Amino acid sequence: MIVFGYRLPGMSSLIVWGLLWELVGRLKLTFFVPPLSEVVATLYTVIGTAAFQKALAETAYAFLAGVGFAIIIGIPVGILMGKNRLLDELLLPWVNVFLSAPLTALVPVLMVLFGFGMKAIIITTTLFGIWIIILNSRAGVKQINRSLVEMAHSFGASPVDAFFKIYFWAALPEILGGVRIGIIRAVKGVIIGQLLISIVGFGALFELYSANFLMGHFWAVLIVLFALAFTISEFLAYLERRVSYYAAKR
Amino acid sequence: MPNRSLLLKILSAVILFGAWEIAGRVPVSFAFPTFLESMAALVRMTADGTIFTAYAETLKPLIVGVAISTVLGIAIGLWVGLSQFFDWLFSPIFIVMQAAPLAALIPLLVLAYGIGLTSKVLVVCIMAMPVIVLNTSSAVRNTPESMKEMGRAFLASDTAIVLKIIIPAASPVIFAGLRLGISAGFIGAILSELKITPTGVGDIITYSRSIADYPSMYAAIFSIILLAVLFLNLLEKIEVVLFKGNQRGYVSD
Amino acid sequence: MVMSQTKAAFGQAEPADYESAVSARNISKNYGAVEALRDLSLEFPRGQLTSLLGPSGCGKTTLLKIIAGLLQPSAGEVEVNGHTVTGPGPDRAFVFQDFALLPWATVMRNVAFGLEMRGVAKSEREGIAAKYIAEVGLSGFEHSYPHELSGGMRQRVGLARALSVDAQVLLMDEPFSAVDEQTRRKFQEDLLALVQHENKTFIFVTHSIEEAVYVSDQIAILLPRPSRVSEIIRPSSFRSKGVDNIRRDPEYLDIVDQIWASLRSYVE
Ligand SMILES: Nc1ncnc2c1ncn2[C@@H]1O[C@H](COP(=O)(O)OP(=O)(O)OP(=O)(O)O)[C@@H](O)[C@H]1O
Ligand SMILES: [Mg+2]
């Protein structure tokens, strides 16, 4: 958007929305929307509280563990599927099913199988993130130039060498693309898991706030969460752009 | 072998359901029924009609929410894609929404709108809308410049360019966004039934868990996943038929 | 003043008694800091084919789009039949380098698009479109979609679309760049016939020296950015000798050599 020859920065309209929020809050149109300034003030106090820090730490732990599993399992499975036709044909239908399945429905199963705790949340997070990682790693391997593979064979690379030195690197841009989307989904997964298993992390915090009608606190935590999620997604997009230069040159 | 792919699909289903059956028989957990038990429960629920009444309930917020998101999402998306000002104004909101765990809004929605249909519809909407808006606006923005130029060269009015060039050119991507939106809508619909008030399929899941009737619980979950996957696959098939060759047509060689 | 500049630039062109269908006067065009055209003037005789020839990126497409009214020049003006161009008009039709066909529309609808935009009734415009589809040799493909056609066939759809609106001036941006050599030669012959039979003014952009010399009544050689007309060449004698003999004609070969000599210094 260009105004008087000056290019407004991309996200600058959020300031307008912030002002609108402040206005709605000041006018006391609804009890559920306190003014932004109030929320920001609350934000500072909330961040200092032990409850918030505990929730953040628990969420970070569940998120990192969940994403970790999704990556560690997802990438090799995807690469193997890309290399082995039989495995691919056996697994691909299920990967596609879980990719589009409403995974929220599985959370109750995880709850009864793994208990109302961290374990179930971590698995939920993994389940949200892993399928797209598998699918993209597979696609990455599938598009590898045949002559690259033949080159490796002609220089006598062992299968293990070929796996780590050729397939992984040649498919890296697609893999990273998958990891980025997987992580964004995992962010949603970890929150959904906590909402349904509401005795840990932000799930517990939300219960506390809504039981006490602490609107300012609620919005403050939402702002933190959304800002974190947005930062993660932008950072990953930045990383992806960094590698895309060589993707174009393959 | 002509039917290798079909055979392998069946084989892979047999392996997965077989593993489920065996794991249930071991059993890996007291809360893990066998595949056959779960299917029996599903047949029972279908026979006595429980499942149909449940779906009538579950699909209500889903359909209403998806309908609202579709109409509103495409309208906003077109608007944002066509006007620089609205792009500047609205895009950041939807980009943040797309990245953010919007499920966190549910407790707030419940406080504001209670535990009725409104809240559930809103949950479906906030899940489904961002991707519809973003897909629509980027599809509109990415209409090949040469096609718009062609329109102008042959004296198309602005309205004609939007109606006869931009919208048809964007429709495959819009449709794909719709499919993603509906997929997210399913997540939202079930989430709201599990989190807000147990109704419909969410009720079967919650209730049978509380009385430890695990086969019924698994059957309900199986059915909703099956329904969602079948429906989304159907949409994908429609997409392929509807927009056959549409994307390939942009190639210039 | 226009003519004097032209005369100063080259020796060959006779101070023609041709009537100009299109005149570009002192056109400059800047894209931000990039100066694509500077003070370019050129006359396009009615009923003839003028080629714009020049190295890649020298501004041929830019000039063509300015004439079409798709781009506004930074300075200068274009006149078509005595009227200053302010935007696209019914007197000009464009053949796009990348065809710009609507992938969701059949050949018939694509060809009739220009007429549709002019508000011609469906049955009438389909009648006209069918005639031009036949003329470019695509009868039987009326109900095919662009992705079912080869590159050369798509190009012919673009050509039929431009012909069907019956504009006096046809603007063709590298129309034959995407087809194989045989098809290209066929198209070139067809184009010559078209110029002869239709009393239209053709403005033709190409990269190929041979092609330019083969099809043109007048060749304008553009220099790299910021682009001006450096030379205007009017092949005179071989056009009448029949399409089959042109490529063997000494004048044809001389002109090709001469153009290459003047362009080679701009190619590293
Ligand atoms: N939209 C644009 N924005 C900025 N610069 C442009 C734009 N279009 C063209 N240019 C610049 O103007 C110059 C002329 O471009 P133009 O497309 O007219 O060249 P051309 O002679 O048609 O080249 P080619 O033979 O490769 O098609 C180029 O150097 C290009 O960099
Ligand atoms: Mg060009």
What does it look like?
Chain A is an all-alpha fold and 250 residues long. Chain A has helices at residues 13-26, 36-48, 50-83, 85-100, 107-114, 118-142, 146-154, 159-170, 172-196, 201-211, 215-249, and strands at residues 2-3, 6-7. Chain A has a single domain (36-247), classed as MetI-like fold. Chain A is built from eleven helices and two strands; from the N terminus they run E-E-H-H-H-H-H-H-H-H-H-H-H. In chain A, a hairpin with a 2-residue loop joins strand 1 (2-3) and strand 2 (6-7). Chain A is globular, with a radius of gyration of 22 Å. Chain B has ten helices and no strands. The radius of gyration of chain B is 22 Å and the shape is globular. Chain C folds into two domains: 4-91 and 169-266, P-loop containing nucleotide triphosphate hydrolases (Rossmann fold, 3-Layer(aba) Sandwich); 98-166, no CATH class. Chain C is built from eight helices and ten strands. Chain C has helices at residues 2-9, 60-68, 107-117, 122-135, 151-164, 181-197, 209-215, 250-264, and strands at residues 20-31, 34-45, 49-53, 75-80, 83-84, 92-95, 169-173, 201-206, 218-222, 229-233. In chain C, the strands form two sheets. Chain C has a six-stranded mixed beta sheet, with helices on both faces. Chain C has a four-stranded antiparallel beta sheet with strand order 2-1-4-5. In chain C, strand 1 and strand 2 (34-45) form a beta hairpin. In chain C, 44% of the residues are buried. Mean pLDDT of chain C is 84; it is low at 1-15. The chains are: A mainly alpha (250), B mainly alpha (253), C alpha/beta (268). Chains B and C meet through helix 7 and helix 8 of B and strand 6 and helix 3 of C. Bound molecules: adenosine-5'-triphosphate and magnesium ion. The site of magnesium ion (MG) has 2 residues of chain C, from helix 2.
